[in-house]
Amino acid sequence: DAGVTQSPTHLIKTRGQQVTLRCSPISGHKSVSWYQQVLGQGPQFIFQYYEKEERGRGNFPDRFSARQFPNYSSELNVNALLLGDSALYLCASSLEWGTDSNQPQHFGDGTRLSIL
Amino acid sequence: GQNIDQPTEMTATEGAIVQINCTYQTSGFNGLFWYQQHAGEAPTFLSYNVLDGLEEKGRFSSFLSRSKGYSYLLLKELQMKDSASYLCAVSWGKLQFGAGTQVVVTP
What we know:
Chain A is mainly β. Chain A contains no helices and eleven strands. Chain B has strands at 4-5, 9-13, 18-24, 31-37, 44-49, 53-57, 60-65, 70-75, 84-92, 94-97, 101-106. In chain B, the strands form two sheets. In chain B, strands 2, 4, 5, 9, 10 and 11 form a six-stranded mixed β-sheet that branches.
């Protein structure tokens, strides 16, 4: 079975531009989360979606937005890109969602975003 | 705060055992997860603890003590392919990660 798939794998943008990153979860997984990972740090939580609704948001500005589609795939949008947005953006899926859920999250290979 | 602290780097010899400690300053989380991440790749799930105690999965074991705010990942019979970053994360549905511990396995 396919794992979590993300596209594109690499992307180069300039400051002020907008970007859309895409994620397809593992078949049967209904929860999708987005994380930002800068070099030398652990992933930082951005958003979590379950059944097409936002279930959690990390400490990121409103330039970051996301949505989940009926087929459980997801998009992350970032507007007005800054140099500091350069990072690896990871998508993770899990079977369930919930503050008491211990379902492991499974990560895709990420999109490496470079801002020039 | 909800800091999650791990050593930055550890070096060990092939065939040896290494213990990666993780301390945290939070409570009320569901479980504590460990992930492995090779350079340029996605984190892969290794182990998790909900209750205090030791969970063993082959060469990898993880331990949790909620009262002490402490967890560790034990890697036995180290292999060269175990050279990677190991990430500790607490879970409230979302994951909060530490910065990771870079393990270098030498011949």
